[in-house]
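Posting for a labmate who doesn't have an account.
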Amino acid sequence: MNHCPACHEENDLAARFCESCGTALAIPEGVAGNDSNLPQTVFPNCQKCDSTDLEPDGFCNQCGFRNPTKRDRFEQIINPNFVAISDRGIKHSQNEDCFAIQQLSDGRAVLVVCDGVSSSSNPGIASQQASQTACRSIQRSLEADVEPSQALLEAIAAAQSTVAKLVPSGHGEAPSTTIVAAIVSPIVESGVESPAMTQITLGWLGDSRAYWFAPEASQQLTQDHSWCEEMVATGQMSREEAERSLQAHAITRWLGADADGEMEPTIAQINLPLPGRLLLCSDGLWNYASEVSQLQKSLQQPEGADLITIARKGVEFALRCGGQDNITIALLDLKESPPNSGGT
């Protein structure tokens, strides 16, 4: 089912508008097809002048009013323990983030978060195409018994090929986006799935991040491909000095036609004790709480709160902090039991 971001009622997966309140719904990966260039406005008519001459980004060609689009805020609930949400934020005129999440029949989970590079043209289309392409590629590879690390390499290469073919607007820079993707798999020892451990395989380019929250060992799982991290890694600056620079968040790797051959993704695989919570997010969230403990605190909710409520509260936290960027959050809760016995 697809849950309405406004009234939270359940709708059919193929539904484009909520049957209860009329809000535009996110179209889960694989349902909508490749329609990213079609009009994406919530309403068919301009809410100011009633014209039907609307651009895909919501702007009315008659009066210039920016109408809401279904990309402004959308969410997906795979099950109570696996959700994602994306929000335009306050300062940006459109949502240039996107996500794709998928639960496979064997219990493995796939999460992809992409953050379109605002200085490029069509960043929203770049992030949408990259996330959907990568998710589909990972699913096909895993179903063909490809190892997770290789599956991520092939998926990011496929996303790069897709984004590199996108056409810039006017004389703008080539469309580009960051990407972080995760495959969550059970650990099998002597033919038996471990009830207390899970394996997370990650691949990324740019500064969208992955975190692991657990009772004893919360940690950041990715390291940004950014100017700041390069300065710190090479010893040219302390972290405090680098983070004060205006260039601190400039990314050094991305997907796009202008990404040179040296922009290889980082692939990492880690075995972690259960229970725990995996978070993938764009910098629209972590910019306001980059330390693990700070970010974990921003997502804390009363005992018993469901995961989509926690994800929505994370968006609200970023909005209260200023909402300077688009905000995307993908969350997966993992319990002390094999995925095949109870799912994630």
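Reply:
Got it, the structure tokens are right above this. Residues 108 and 211 are 18 Å apart (CA to CA).
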